[in-house]
């Protein structure tokens, strides 16, 4: 059996498995790659929200990174929740010399609005990690936080993508899923803006959508897809997963990661 591409997720743990590293691993398996994890924080969360966050000490994050990079290696990296500035520094230090796609999902807040990273962590992410990124995937709130651009309608997506690009990533994907109408995302490389559109799905069960999209993109990049093709395939796969979202608990249920198998 041929070795699968290796993708490393650096993020927080979600015990309900709707988001975080658990969603990353489910996504990576479905997309046909070998998923690995570095735990940056332990959270207490469920379908109703996040009730507590315990950041992992930076030396433990460094040791996990050294263990994976020093033995197994990686073909792509997906970065999610980084709660502390010293953790961001550790991750940036370890990834600076890597020549693989790095996808940054700049998680600042949980889907119910709870903060997942402090102000210093977001500042260091902006200055140290975004310049290393092959692709950064902010939603509208994250684009406003990082680049100072508020998106009110679809025509504002291009400006937000341009503002995010000035922070140093190679590509930017601004996710417009919280706008009215179709779910439209804007991909920008500093020259061309590409729009990816999908019909809005009437569902309350969208827990883990951002984690799943970023991990799917990282998986397809590890498999050799170009950035635009990886984004387009991941967008289609996640749209299918949202359509299959199901109730679990008393709040926002997860997307259906099994639907991603159709896009392996």
Please describe what this structure looks like.
With 264 residues, this protein is of the alpha/beta class. It has a single domain, classed as 3-Layer(aba) Sandwich (UDP-N-acetylmuramoyl-L-alanine:D-glutamate ligase). The chain contains 8 helices and 9 strands. Strands 3-2-1-4-5-6-7-8-9 form a 9-stranded mixed beta sheet, sandwiched between helices. α4 links the parallel β5 and β6. α1 crosses α7 and α3 runs parallel beside α4. The longest helix is centred in the C-terminal third of the chain and has 17 residues. It starts with 5 loop residues before the first strand and ends in a 21-residue tail after the last helix. InterPro entries: HMP/HMP-P_kinase_dom, PM/HMP-P_kinase-1, Ribokinase-like. It holds the Pfam family Phos_pyr_kin. It comes from Acidothermus cellulolyticus (strain ATCC 43068 / DSM 8971 / 11B). GO terms for molecular function: ATP binding; hydroxymethylpyrimidine kinase activity; phosphomethylpyrimidine kinase activity.
What is the typical, i.e. mean, pLDDT? 95
Question: What's the number of domains?
Answer: 1
> For this structure, what is the CATH homologous superfamily?
Ribokinase
**Element pattern in H and E:** EHEEHEHEHEHHEEEHH
Structural class of the secondary elements? alpha/beta
Q: Give unreliable regions as ranges.
A: none
Question: Can you list the strand order of the major beta sheet?
Answer: 3-2-1-4-5-6-7-8-9
For the largest beta-sheet, the strand count, sense and barrel status come to:
9 strands, mixed
CATH class: Alpha Beta
Please give the radius of gyration in angstroms: 17 Å
Would you count the extended β strands for me? 9
Tell me the helix content: 25-40%
Characterize the overall form.
globular
CATH fold descriptor: UDP-N-acetylmuramoyl-L-alanine:D-glutamate ligase
